[in-house]
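User: Please go through the entry that follows and flag anything odd:
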Amino acid sequence: MTAPPLPRQPADVAWPTKAWPRGGLSPSADGVRLNALLDHALSTPSTEDLGETHALLIVHGGRLIVERYGPGKSAEDTFPSWSMAKSITQALLGLAVGDGLIDIHAPADVPEWRGAGDPRGAITLDLLLRMSSGLAYVEDYLPDQPSDVIEMLWGAGKDDVAHFAADKPLEHEPGAFWCYSSGTSNIISRCVGRALNARGADFEAWMRRRLFEPLGMTSPAPKFDDAGTFIGSSFCFCTAQDFARFGTLYLRDGVWEGRRLLPEGWVDYARAKTWQQPNDDGPYGAHWWLDTGGPGSFAAHGFGSQHIVVVPDLDMVVVRSGDTPLSLKLNPPAWIRQVVDCFR
């Protein structure tokens, strides 16, 4: 299946760098069904099927047409990214690629893999982006289960998250097995920092200058470990409006206010399907999930059901922030699909 083309910003709609252009529902939208879905999710602090929904934004045709917040939440609040930060990390890598600093198809610059004969030396950033490195890693969020991600973020690996992940042995031949791994995102983040020769505050200043400020994203609060690596797997707090700005950058093919920020083809690369063995998580691209909002859509997902869903065929971005129990994690994406279908 060919991915639908990425739409351009309508000529009569301002870019949301300073403030979001506002609009109403199109006449073809099912407003009755949409309002029922939003009222169900946002009128009470929590629901049995979705848990807590803190924010829901819909951008359609470049205009912010729906902005709803749950009880006690507002446009000024920042919300956790959790693994939506992985898609931000993909954008940061794209900037370095566009600057000619990194080749994603060359062996990744990972000191732990440079020993003579180390088979991990064949791992590329492309394989890391596609969660196909072959490194051993357990992505489990249950406190009573073995979990590399919990150990990396809050245990023995928290001071140097990239080293913790890169030190893992190979479990599969690189490229032969798909395994979702937060550790790989932190390896990527460190590779970007090494290419820039920037860590900590210097890296954050670069993030703001090259990505956040051009989009008008004023709220991002990225977190770093003691080694100065952006914890690109998990930690970049933002307002819902700023998450929508980031999604709009990808909807607009990496172009903002007529200026190309991400390399040409980088967004198409993000939404090109990765080979996966049968799994319950759904199709994956390159640090973006696929088809959450219908065929041809792509999305950033985070723990607790944080979502930025980009729907090219509808010229739409949907942002959902909340706190959904792990046992209900499949429900918010299905609910978002129903929200999107109100416009089909």
In short: The chain has a mean pLDDT of 97. The radius of gyration is 19 Å. The first helix runs from residue 31 to 42.
